[in-house]
Amino acid sequence: MEEIIQEHIDKLLLFMREEAYKPLTIQELEEAFGIEGSEGFKDFVKALVTMEEKGLVIRTRSNRYGLPEKMNLIRGKLIGHARGFAFVVPDEKKTGDDDLFIPPTELNGALHGDTVLARLSSQSSGSRQEGSIVRILERGTKELVGTYTESKNFGFVIPDNKRWTSDIFVLKSASMGAVEGHKVVVKITSYPENRLSAEGEVIQILGHKNDPGVDILSVIHKHHLPLAFPEEVMEHANSVPETISEEDLKDRRDLRDQMIVTIDGADAKDLDDAVTVTKLENGNYKLGVHIADVSHYVQEGSPIDVEAAERATSVYLVDRVIPMIPHRLSNGICSLNPKVDRLTLSCEMEINNLGDVVKHEIFQSVIKTTERMTYADVRSILEDEDEELIKRYEPLVPMFKEMGQLAQILREKRMRRGAIDFDFKEAKVLVDEEGKPTDVVMRDRSVSEKLIEEFMLVANETVAEHFHWMNVPFMYRVHEDPKEDKLERFFEFVTNFGYAVKGRANEVHPRALQQILEMVQGQPEEVVISTVMLRSMKQARYDADSLGHFGLSTEFYTHFTSPIRRYPDTIVHRLIREYIINGKVDNETQAKWREKLPEIAEHSSNMERRAVEAERETDELKKAEYMLDKIGEEYDGMISSVTNFGLFVELPNTIEGLVHVSYLTDDYYRYDEQHFAMIGERTGNVFRIGDEITIRVINVNKDERAIDFEIVGMKGTPRRKFKDRPVVIEQPRTGRKKRGGRSERSNERGGERGTGRKFDRGGKGKGRGSASASASQPGKKDSNGKKKKAFFENVPGFKKKKKKRK
């Protein structure tokens, strides 16, 4: 019965999406589809009712059925904001479409996470579309985590998620005995209506908000992160052997006699990649990237696979790791531990001195790593030439040096082609056994991290390109071109600092953006320009189509190198086994993956974003806790963001606080959105992103993860003057071809355990001045004798000074 109804739904949607379709009555639809018999008619009506309930179709006042998008309506998910407004993210989102802005007065009872129908407003201003909620199709939030506060006969739960703007009323009889300050999980029993609050019942008490570990536990529950594995999964994991059998070695290439090493952080336990480099007689390099064969142990459809698919990624919180697969596998048989046999999938590449992969092979193998190296030790060998370590690892030192040479070649190639490399600071919060922060230390991105980073990048590119040309369904990591309007605003912004990008925003090559980063390196404006550029980018994600990777400036990219902690990598391994090792490229196999991959890609992207939010939240939480006993202390910092309500200041250890506009007491300050600055009306003082200032800590609220600063001495910087003619960043002469259908901080091994930021990072920037600084010879006359304008005189925001007449 359900299959018949679903079949009707699919056919109706296909029919209604035709361009010539106009809303029809149920009788007209019945006639169009040739429905016969009473049972057939009942099923057909059920299909239409189901579609209407889900918001897939709309029934008009004249009882005609049509698609929402053809009736000025949008079906989508509501994303709330702490300040009351919200956005609707359309279900059927076309490339380039913006989310729909919903003012607070037009929410009509809808809350964050709800699936809604929204009507486009005819009063939309500028380029931003506005709308109003006309129907709540499904409530998205069933449970919330929050802080219980009590009164005599009832209590309230204040949600931790500030996007949910309604407190939850709880009767004493439904509180489970919760007391003031308890962190609780509350089940929503009724949603807010008119002036009534939402109501709920406490279903779990996590502990008092000041108890050790409860803060992180609250974040875990807030983001619905899974903690313990189901019993069935653990039983299956415990049945996996701890050693390799002779049967496992069948049809595998034996590489156990090769010099292969892992290079990871000192505290890493899940070692999923190993590398080896050999200099060939022809002058080329042979790079072997050997990745733990997780898919050999995590069979498709098994309990572990089902759970791993749902989790999609390991989550690295401040005080713990929530693994994608049980530790018995991730730290055991799947981890490339030193000097033991391990099963791997290998990508061997021959690379010339220009960084081109001239030959490659992908195959299954067995390895035995020679050593378990750390980033610190490899850095000491290559940079510090530590005599003790060189003696200890004497047989490996020549290979490490060849690794350094190859990594430099690969990096130079990426920089030539225009890979964008943001070099923002990253910090790690150290906590004690009770979860109390003891220090905030900077993460080092040394030569050893960059070395592994380059090897993982080239392996991912090689695997992606291999399967692109096989023309089979595959999982790609994509980073689409930035939106044209965002880039135009960025180009307008950099003219304030004396830089201008030649060419149209919709045809920009990533190399032009990388050249900007190179030119501002070490300059006062480096932080501000890097920050605003990053904000103009889209987020990297997974997709079944090869849409290219803008940030890495490459046509083909995937994630192949971390199957222990990322499910898309496990899928890539499964596809390698299916297509290459088993040779199954028949139509049935391709049809199966063509159907499955889009859903896996979307779910994995969503889970990646969830993990990033949880990681960021626990970081901010512990940084705020670390500053609790620092009130009254003064620090030097840099303005990291400017808003209409104040300045965010980042300290050298990346801790960030707010100088509220009310604390700017020496003048009346006006927010200049175009220049990301606060400008004093009387003094002319300017506070802008990148300015260095001294602050004093005046307040810390751990629950809100908020730190308040005030400026010591209240002295801004005078307006900076830049050259009359901007430095010109030329686009590459060859231009940039638009790819069909196309348009992080690091998520590669160089970032050690990142789970996807804006896009996947390449290497660290080096040097300046590779961009052209010509001004295209302004002032020459054209064929009509008129004086030509320099092209940058037409750049928005650029005004040429008029010469005074003598």
Automatic annotation (TrEMBL):
Any Pfam family the entry gives: OB_RNB
Main location: cytoplasm
Domain of life: Bacteria
Coiled-coil residues: 604-634
GO molecular function: exoribonuclease II activity; RNA binding
Keywords associated with the record: Coiled coil, Cytoplasm, Exonuclease, Hydrolase, Nuclease, RNA-binding
Any GO BP: mRNA catabolic process
Family per record: Belongs to the RNR ribonuclease family. RNase R subfamily.
Localization, UniProt: Cytoplasm
Limits of the S1 motif domain: 632-712
Catalytic reactions of this protein: Exonucleolytic cleavage in the 3'- to 5'-direction to yield nucleoside 5'-phosphates
SMART domains recorded: CSP (SM00357), RNB (SM00955), S1 (SM00316)
Compositional bias segments (type: Basic and acidic residues): 741-763
InterPro entries: CSD, CSD2, NA-bd_OB-fold, RNase_B_OB_dom, RNase_II/R, RNase_II/R_CS, RNase_II/RNase_R, RNase_R
Cellular component GO terms held in the UniProt record: cytosol
Biased composition (Low complexity): 769-778
Region entry Disordered, spans: 722-806
Name by which UniProt lists this protein: Ribonuclease R
EC annotation from Swiss-Prot or TrEMBL: 3.1.13.1
Function in brief: 3'-5' exoribonuclease that releases 5'-nucleoside monophosphates and is involved in maturation of structured RNAs.
